[in-house]
Structure formats: structure tokens, C-alpha cells
Write a structure and sequence with these properties.
The protein is of the alpha+beta class. The protein contains twelve helices and ten strands. Strands 1, 2, 3, 4, 5, 6, 7, 8, 9 and 10 form a ten-stranded mixed sheet that branches. Helix 2 packs antiparallel against helix 7 and helix 3 packs across helix 7. It is globular, with a radius of gyration of 20 Å. The chain starts with a strand and ends in a 5-residue tail after the last helix.
Length: 376
């Protein structure tokens, strides 16, 4: 099979129009309507249009889940402390999440051009802002109509755990010990008491995709008390959370879903967005092929930044990745940093997390696009 993947990206940010009058509408929806109208009139032929979907559903006459279009949606987690009001602009602008079309990560793909023009059009209309509440999520899957194999997902899961300390060292502090992107190991009730070899053994013991999804993404607060810690709960008693650094929950879609990396920070331009897409897609592509423990050991991959860099470059394919973009992730970074468990959360924060988790299950725009994906 020809090399490649497909992906989608979600970017969280604030938008503030260059013309002050455009910011004074009664709601985020009013701003989004104006922004979408400008965006669709400005993009050139052959570049994806944009549609919007807010909490109350899609704008009449539009299909925001279309695989070939950008979507703009509200996001309650993008906020300025003590300022969040869905009907009032914050000091940084209106908070949104932008969801990409499904794009091809393969030799000769034009996705970088599409991302660059997308960001240039945004910046023509508005000034983007980010703070520590903003992040970038990259969803990766095999090519259209190709299912994930359980063996591939196991290798990705093992690679996530093997290089977790290295990822901590290349990410900004705001994306470490983060309640929206928890560690798949130290914040995971199924794995946090195990050493790495024991974690790999638990992964290999998973006979079904559902078992592996739960093992990597359990809802710690709702694990049955009467099930021994070394046993998976019965399927009808499992509760899953997508709020981990690596979210496997979308693989419940009969193997046609995505593995989502929620770890990258918010971005302000096309260059930074492309860098994190390159990083995540290159890591997953290598992991699918080289994530067995024997392969990791035989190639002497150290569990630090240098080892992670070598691992990502292992999967390089001519005219598919951009080595310069990968270099920018690793530049002046070294060593490793052990993940710190997330701090105890207030009742209010736990409720916000639960609401967000439930909302993402209901309004999963990327998965709607994947179901109808051919890639661009």
C-alpha cells in the first residue's frame, strides 16, 4: 500500500476583528456569521470554504460536518479567567474552535498550502489570540476506507507510553499536567502503578479494540470498585474519558475512527499549525510500524528528546514530511521530563470536565467528517 495517512486538526483560539465595529455584535454567533461570510468570499478557487455550527446546531441550509469544509464552533473551555460570558466578547476576543476538512498526509499532498491560505484569510479579517486555555488537537487515521488494525493501535499505544517523558520535554509547560490532556500513564488508574514492561503486557493482553480503548482512556472517577486493579471491568460497566493527551475513544467506530493527540499548544499562524501536524502524524506513522518493544529496544531508542527525534525520523517518506518543520520542534530541546499527575480538582472543575467530555461525544465534528472522508 502506498504510504500515507489522513488527518484533521482542531485549533482553539480567540478572534478579534480588525474593524472594532465587527466585534460589537450580540453574541459569538453573530460574529461567526460575519466572519464566515468574509472568509468564503475571500478564499481562492479550490480552497475549502467554511461553515459554522454553534451549541444550538448548524446554521440553516449549511452542513458544518461536510468533510471538504472548515467548521467554526463555540468552545466553553477557551476562556479568559473570570471573563467567560457566551454573549459578551472577552478581552482577547470571541472564543472559538476551528475544525479542518479531512486532509491527506501523503507524498505530493497540498495540505500545507491549504493550511497556509486558511490562516492568511483568518488574519486578514481578525487578529487571533491564544492563552493557556487554548490547544491544538490533531486527529490521525489510515487512508479513507482503510481500517485500523488492532496490532497497529497497540504499537501506537506502546509508543505513546514509551516516549511520554520525551513529549513532556518538547511541550510548553501549559500542556503538561493538564486536565484536558492528561497523561495516559500517570493519570490513568489502570496503568499508573505499573512499570513500562507491565504496561506493554497489559496492552498486548487486549484482544479487542474496545479493551485497548478502555485501557488507554479510562474514566478514573467511575471505575467499578469491585473489579481487581489488574482486570478490565466488564464492557457494560466501563466508562471512558477522551480527556487524555492521546485519545483513542474515536476508534469505537468499527476501526474507522481516529487517534487524537490533544497535547500541542494553541497556535497563531499556519507555520506553527503545520509544525504540530507534522510532529503528530510523523510520530503516529512511525509508531504504527516500529512501536513493538523489540523494535524499540533493538534500535536503542532512548526515552528522551533525542530518542523521540530519531523515532519520528524513522518513518520519513520522500515528499510526505517536512524535515525542517520537525527540526523546529526539537531545536534546543533535550532530555526528558517525568509527567506530573494533574492536581486535585474542585467540584466546579470536575463538572466542567464532565460537561465537556459529554459535549464532545455529542458534537464530534471530526468524526462526522471522517465518516464521509476521501481526503483533500
Amino acid at each position: 500500500m502506498a504510504p500515507g495517512l489522513q488527518f484533521g486538526v482542531e485549533t482553539e483560539l480567540f478572534l478579534s476583528a480588525h474593524e472594532p465595529a465587527r466585534n460589537q455584535g450580540p453574541s459569538a454567533g453573530a460574529f461567526a456569521t460575519d466572519f464566515v461570510s468574509y472568509y468564503n468570499s475571500a478564499v481562492t478557487s479550490g480552497i475549502s470554504k467554511m461553515r459554522w455550527v454553534l451549541h444550538d446546531g448548524p446554521h440553516p441550509g449549511h452542513n458544518p460536518q461536510s468533510r471538504g469544509e472548515w467548521s467554526i464552533t463555540e468552545d466553553d473551555t477557551v476562556r479568559v479567567r473570570d471573563e467567560y460570558d457566551e454573549n459578551k466578547i472577552t478581552s482577547l476576543g470571541w472564543p472559538f474552535e476551528l475544525v479542518s476538512p479531512i486532509l491527506k498526509f501523503e507524498p505530493g499532498s497540498k495540505w500545507r498550502r491549504a493550511l497556509q491560505e486558511h490562516w492568511l484569510t483568518i488574519r486578514d479579517f481578525a487578529k487571533p489570540h491564544i492563552n493557556d486555555s487554548c490547544s491544538t488537537h490533531v486527529h490521525v487515521s489510515p487512508k479513507a476506507e482503510v481500517e485500523w488494525q488492532l496490532s497497529e493501535v497497540k504499537r501506537v499505544a506502546q509508543s505513546v507510553l514509551y516516549f511520554e517523558d520525551a513529549w513532556e520535554a518538547v511541550l510548553p509547560p501549559s500542556r503538561c499536567s493538564n486536565v484536558w490532556a492528561k497523561s495516559n500513564r500517570v493519570d490513568n488508574i489502570e496503568l499508573k502503578h505499573l512499570n513500562l514492561r507491565q504496561c506493554f503486557s497489559r496492552i498486548q493482553d487486549c484482544d479487542k479494540m474496545d479493551d485497548l480503548i478502555y485501557l488507554m482512556n479510562p474514566d478514573n472517577d467511575r471505575r467499578p470498585d469491585d473489579v481487581p486493579p489488574n482486570k478490565l471491568p466488564p464492557k457494560d460497566r466501563r466508562r471512558i474519558s477522551r480527556l487524555y493527551g492521546w485519545n483513542f475513544q474515536n476508534l469505537e467506530e468499527d476501526g474507522l475512527g481516529t487517534i487524537e493527540c490533544r497535547r500541542p499548544p494553541g497556535v497563531l499562524n499556519g507555520e506553527a499549525c503545520c509544525v504540530w501536524i507534522e510532529m503528530v502524524a510523523s510520530f503516529v506513522y512511525s509508531a504504527m510500524k516500529h512501536g513493538d518493544l523489540e523494535d524499540l529496544n533493538e534500535n536503542n531508542y532512548t526515552r528522551d528528546v533525542k530518542g523521540l527525534e530519531r523515532f519520528c525520523y524513522k518513518g520519513l517518506v520522500s515528499d510526505m514530511q517536512n524535515p525542517i518543520a520537525l527540526d523546529s520542534v526539537f531545536h534546543k530541546r533535550s532530555g526528558a521530563s517525568s509527567p506530573v499527575p494533574v492536581a486535585a480538582m474542585s467540584k466546579e472543575m470536575r463538572e466542567l470536565l464532565r460537561r465537556k467530555d459529554d459535549e464532545e461525544k455529542r458534537k464530534n465534528i471530526i468524526m462526522e467528517k471522517i465518516r464521509d472522508s476521501g481526503g483533500l
